[in-house]
């Protein structure tokens, strides 16, 4: 089986159910060759320990992912010189400059404001509404725009560009490249204006005062804008749909709201967010999962599969809202561990908390299994129409 090349995403991707392909690979071929939609041949690892190794080991590079001729997963090439596309020591330098703005303490201070925002958005959650459109999407966009100091009124200008940057459709490449150019132009002008104004109201103002160059700052701002958008929006939608799919979970949380923080961790573990994997390029020959990944070869770490590995989680396909311990990899591990982890946790906990309190009788308007998935790099339900009462 190791000699076979499989096409990724797999045919059983984009679904609520556990992937039989992931389960089979974990047992029979924990390192396998796969072909991405962009036509690249790379390794895929699926077991928890191997995924952890690939994510954290410095012999697997992120900087090499943006080098000329490197294997591609999606359509857009990630911007060079940002946190996800640098290796230590350059990565360490950049991360030190920005980590204060996303520290646990700084993010916790935004919690009351995030809660108020959830309450305001919940006013639009009416019978028949699409929860993704009226609540799950505006929340993280408003949060990241406010934190960064990007005018929320401009969202129509960058929404399509951001969405396209997640596309897996190779035929979309010219549109995606044009979108990236526009997005860079937009952010370049915004950053230049902020530098000239010399204020200290938000994270971008703060970053203007660091030794980051103009180009580094623009790339970083775009990275945050995109990273802070779709991930949390997809997660909020999928979390609610998962809890409503078996109503007992929703009802348990309505009755025990103190369980929300641990439920959020379990839902992060359980929810399928990426059907491909996090890409690295080996800098030297490395043995992993019984194969030798040669220097220059790409390897993808399937976080979704690792989070369902029975070697790491008892009864992995069961949703256990009180699961402890829960060392899931949904936010990554090692030097590239999600910079926005605490922000994501605050958004997800507050969003669920407010929805559970305001709408204990929330129901999906249609069976959630019938709803379409967005077939993109960071995936989730395309819509979640809801019914009240
Ligand atoms: C539920 C929501 C989120 C999930 C599941 C998530 C997941 C992840 C994962 C798995 C990684 C590591 C990728 C790798 O190792 O290749 C990562 C990195 C990152 N995330 Fe998040 N993320 C979320 C929300 C956010 C938010 C709200 C922000 C905005 C501040 C953010 C900013 C970043 C950045 C900048 C990195 C790169 C860090 C580095 O390379 O040092 N994320 N995220």
UniProtKB/TrEMBL annotation:
InterPro entries named in the record: Cyt_P450, Cyt_P450_B, Cyt_P450_sf
Keyword annotations: Heme, Iron, Metal-binding, Monooxygenase, Oxidoreductase
One MF term in the entry's GO annotations: oxidoreductase activity, acting on paired donors, with incorporation or reduction of molecular oxygen
Keyword Signal: no
SUPFAM superfamilies: Cytochrome P450
Annotated family: Belongs to the cytochrome P450 family.
Protein name in the entry: Cytochrome P450
Annotated organism of origin: Saccharothrix syringae (Nocardiopsis syringae)
């Amino acid at each position: 089986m190791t000699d076979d090349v499989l096409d990724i995403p797999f045919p059983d991707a984009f679904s609520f159910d556990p992937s039989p392909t992931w389960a089979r690979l974990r047992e029979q071929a924990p390192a396998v060759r796969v072909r991405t939609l962009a036509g690249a041949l790379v390794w895929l690892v699926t077991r928890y320990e191997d995924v952890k190794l690939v994510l954290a080991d410095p012999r697997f590079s992120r900087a090499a992912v943006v080098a000329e001729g490197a294997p591609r997963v999606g359509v857009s090439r990630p911007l060079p010189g940002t946190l996800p596309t640098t290796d230590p020591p350059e990565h360490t330098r950049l991360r030190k400059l920005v980590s204060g703005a996303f520290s646990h303490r700084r993010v916790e201070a935004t919690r009351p404001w995030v809660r108020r925002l959830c309450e305001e958005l919940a006013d639009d959650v009416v019978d028949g509404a699409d929860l993704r459109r009226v609540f799950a999407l505006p929340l993280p966009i408003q949060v990241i725009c406010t934190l960064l100091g990007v005018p929320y009124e401009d969202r129509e200008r960058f929404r399509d560009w951001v969405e396209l940057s997640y596309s897996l459709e190779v035929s979309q490449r010219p549109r995606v490249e044009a979108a990236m150019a526009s997005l860079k132009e937009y952010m370049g002008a915004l950053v230049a204006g902020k530098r000239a104004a010399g204020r200290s109201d938000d994270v971008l103002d703060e970053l203007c005062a660091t030794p980051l160059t103009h180009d580094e700052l623009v790339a970083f701002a775009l990275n945050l804008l995109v990273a802070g958008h779709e991930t949390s929006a997809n997660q909020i939608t999928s979390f609610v749909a998962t809890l409503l799919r078996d109503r007992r979970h929703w009802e348990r949380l309505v009755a025990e709201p103190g369980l929300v923080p641990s439920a959020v961790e379990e839902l992060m573990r359980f929810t399928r967010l990426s059907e491909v994997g996090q890409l690295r390029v080996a800098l030297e020959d490395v043995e992993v999962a019984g194969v030798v990944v040669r220097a220059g070869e790409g390897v993808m770490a399937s976080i979704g599969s690792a989070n369902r590995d029975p070697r790491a989680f008892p009864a992995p396909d069961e949703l256990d809202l009180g699961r402890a311990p829960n060392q899931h990899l949904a936010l990554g591990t090692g030097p590239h561990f999600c910079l926005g982890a605490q922000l994501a946790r605050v958004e997800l906990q507050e969003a669920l908390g407010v929805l559970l309190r305001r709408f204990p009788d929330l129901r999906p308007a249609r069976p959630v299994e019938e709803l379409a998935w967005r077939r993109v790099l960071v995936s989730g339900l395309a819509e979640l129409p809801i019914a009240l009462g």
